[in-house]
Fold each of these.
Amino acid sequence: MRITADQKLAGYPASQIRQLMRKTVGGSITLRTVRLVLRCSDFEADCVLNRLQNDGFIESVGGRLEPSTSGRALAMATAAPPLRRATASRLVADLVGRAHALNADDNWAYRVGTVVVFGSYVRGVDRPSDVDVACELRPRWRADRQRAQEDVRRETRGEPFRNMSEWASWPKLEVYRFLRARSRGLSIHELEDWILQNTDHQVVFEHEPKAAENGCRKMRRALHSGLQN
């Protein structure tokens, strides 16, 4: 997603609404948060919330308002000039490389299952505003071991969490941050059905656990055979 300097959302500069989304991704959007970020009154904050919900940027989840898929995309939107096609292709290749590296490192609590590129880049636009990428994450371990590793990732974060939602989602959020690697041209989302069903998309990475397991078995057999000889 790309925003422009003169663009407005809910009556405010798009850059300010983007900042609001960035502060609330992984948590809830309250009247107080809107008031503090936009420096407005309670009445104006309530109007902003209503407009953002009507425009699909926020949604009600369990009785509270949170950024929707569109809201999360807005949080990662850029106001920079469009990308060159070659630059966009390099960003995708680099991201796939990071996905391979992350999957090979058992210190992470999650591995990357699937990476899908969608939007203007897949449609062949010469100068896409950014590259929209959707990722499916999979737990690396099972049951108690997975929970324990998620706790380890939270403990090693190095800074306090803003709220319980961020605490709970951190083991996944850190994967998305690593994959993005501060690349201004990448907009990373959680892989959802609407992306696969309603957009032009291309799968650029898919984890193959069976192939990996078979490779490990072959290595163990080779090692065992070498020891016997």
Note: The chain has two domains: 8-75, 85-217.
Amino acid sequence: MGQLIFLIGMMGSGKSYWGKRLSEAYDCPLVDLDSCIERGEGESISSLFERRGEAVFRALEGSYLRILLDKEGPLVVSTGGGTPCFFDNMSFMNRHGRTVWLDVSPGILAQRLVADGNSRPLLSGVGEGQLLSFLENKLEERAFWYSQSDVRLAWDAVGGEDAFWAALSLAVFPALSSSVPGRASY
């Protein structure tokens, strides 16, 4: 098993986007956990939620997360927003890799999700006027797990995409270089 970098955070925080950039910059594969589940189960995340329910989806998510230990070499993993919050997924990720919380304020998340078309399963039935409140509540529910990450990168504190990229690169480079893991905030 190689070094695993787990990107965690709310929907719309940029886990897939930043995962792709890390994958390209460090020449290591990117695994999008939701995409793995969709390929393995032969249906979309939305369909899984609708047909089989969130509890079944979360159990599948935990199983697919553990399969990643069989992968060779360094790997960047873009998790689902709820992945750290179920079963012992967060402690599992902390034991087997470096976790990086992409911490983005609910206001910015709402802007991104509206621009993205609100296509997330958990947002089904949430109107644009309710979105900010929904995200604030969801972040409050998840903060306990997210705060257990090895690294917390706060978008609002870093100051823009270039600075965020620099901080993210610094946060994961030691892990990809076999450095001793530790906790940090940027």
Note: Residues 22 and 169 are 7 Å apart (CA to CA).
Amino acid sequence: MRTLTTRITATTRRLAALGGLALLLAAVFAVANPGLASAHAKFGSSNPAPNAVLTKAPATITITFTEKLDPSGSNIIVYDDTGKQVSVGKAAVDRSDLTKMSVQMKGNDSEGYSVVWRSKSLDDGDAFTGAYGFTVSADATPSAGDTSTPTASSGGTASGSSNSSGGTPAWLTVLIGVLGLAVGAGGMYYFSRRTPAA
């Protein structure tokens, strides 16, 4: 009898240790890779590009993002240099390429335009906001602009620069930890309830 009880206790301890180890590994993974759990539909490129110099105002602004967009939470608004909105209507996400969004605009005599965008990731629902500007001058020498990422931030107003990220969602890391605990607890319960055969 004593050896069976000793064996059950040792097995219970091993299962509890495995569950604890699974939770510890999930926590270490989440802490070591914080960027993997916070993917956003970030700015990839645009036409016109940030800081472009054009001789004529474009009729359409198109931005390509790093992830597929949720049309219900994504938009582009274009303002002239006085702060007047010159974009026409809500931006449309391209149904054949959900990473592209465009908006029509009516240029006026302004020399500077600001493009403010908000993207909502179709994958995880995270929102991201950013802005960039371009110049229009009939007398200027045209320039393609920057290929660097414009100012962007997660959620609120624009601040800082954006980097693309992707990977394992936080919920998956937590799920693995919880499953590890459940397996350990289930094993403990099972082996503690078993009665030795006589």
Note: Helices lie at 2-32, 170-193.
